[in-house]
Write a structure and sequence with these properties.
about 15% helix, two-stranded parallel sheet, four-stranded mixed β-sheet, 2 domains
């Protein structure tokens, strides 16, 4: 995801949704205990806010669109390793 400010990300993902934050080299990472979900948040005051991509990994082959999903508005990238 992209957001305009670090404070906006912290409010939404840490204070409201209780995610555990760590810092990447150029982004914030939020995780939840017991969940495979991980959000990677890029801070960019000039960019349009919102989702960029959904990264996934799977033990089986998944049939996902190779372009921007018409409903979700993001592309799927993967499979990736953690």
């Amino acid at each position: 995801m992209k957001v305009h400010s670090r404070e906006r990300a912290r409010t939404q993902w840490q204070e409201i949704l209780r995610g555990d934050r760590s810092e990447g080299s150029d982004r914030l990472i939020y995780r939840w205990p017991g969940s495979p979900l991980r959000l990677s948040i890029e801070i960019d005051p000039e960019a349009e806010e919102g989702p960029c991509a959904i990264e996934y990994s799977s033990d089986r082959v998944l049939e996902l669109p190779d372009r921007r999903h018409p409903v979700l508005g993001v592309v799927f990238e993967g499979p990736l390793s953690d």
